[in-house]
């Protein structure tokens, strides 16, 4: 593990000369493109539903497929990261992950479409790499903000795809492609972008501020020590509380990304482009909201210690649940849109607050902790997907139930506590980081 003095204690957005800032920018760009590919199909679902004759249950299954495999991918990536580092891991994920984006255009039945949707879901593991890389690069006084900003700007891909994919589809139709071919070719666009991102990541990033794992790697742990570390992480109840909490925030974001376009298209009788534009507003709040959550976590940590980070997380999560309940009851578009935006702000703030806490749970196994907590987001989306596949339950009622669940989960944040020694260590590192400005 790098010493605290080698990590950046400031985020200099227009500085591309340091390893920390190159990792910062390339990690959020890579995650943005992964998100673009991961949910590129979502705003086109009304067209695909009609072409393939999909039922509500089948659409629900596709939603679950898109996020369920990510649970296992994130757990595996967390283990891999601690061994080979983020640079190589991200390079492989970006390039290999682009393959199902090209292949999904070959689907002509529900079954084949489901298989490719499952494969695409593995791209979601990119989040863990992004958080791991920024955690290695930034000091405790800004790590929450760095994690939240790279993840938030990456999550912008979810809003971007809602707006852009219908436009790409419409452009292809305008060029003479029939609708059944246009959506297939449209999915190749994020695939190509991911390939180029993989090449850039390999060329211009390093694992650590000083270099790559290969040159600066610690002595490998024995198998016995590895198992001991795994047991320690898995046996820490705080990891699983954050797993559930992240399911209640990022899980809700994934769910909305999957259903927002079709919800506004069907419930408010909007055309595909307009429904996609409104759905895109949800994701676009990532421009600032997740960063704001991370910043509040860092500020609270500076004033009240690690417990301050947790208190902010619980409060933001409570507000998320309240606005989700309110949004679910909006029957007029005039009220639904601002409530969607407010709900989005607190969803993403809660995500930022969560990963302002994660780096302090187990410093020697950051990748594994990030992987487990990150997988919680997808587990939450799977549970939510079960509601949206039920024929007897409307989408608005499903949102209402989820809002109540989020309010309940917010109370769980009180179970995330730190020992006096952990608080002392965090304070010492914070003081050292604020006194040190690496080149």
UniProtKB/TrEMBL annotation:
Localisation: Cell membrane; Membrane
Gene Ontology biological process: nitrate assimilation
One Gene Ontology MF term: nitrate transmembrane transporter activity
Keyword list, A-Z: Cell membrane, Membrane, Nitrate assimilation, Transmembrane, Transmembrane helix, Transport
Its membrane topology: Multi-pass membrane protein
Pfam families on file: MFS_1
A GO cellular component annotation in the UniProt record: plasma membrane
Domain Major facilitator superfamily (MFS) profile residues, every copy: 23-421
Transmembrane segments: 26-47, 59-81, 87-106, 118-139, 159-178, 185-204, 267-289, 310-327, 333-361, 368-388, 394-416
Superkingdom in the source lineage: Bacteria
UniProt record similarity statement: Belongs to the major facilitator superfamily. Nitrate/nitrite porter (TC 2.A.1.8) family.
NCBIfam families, sorted: 2A0108
Annotated protein name in UniProt: Nitrate/nitrite transporter
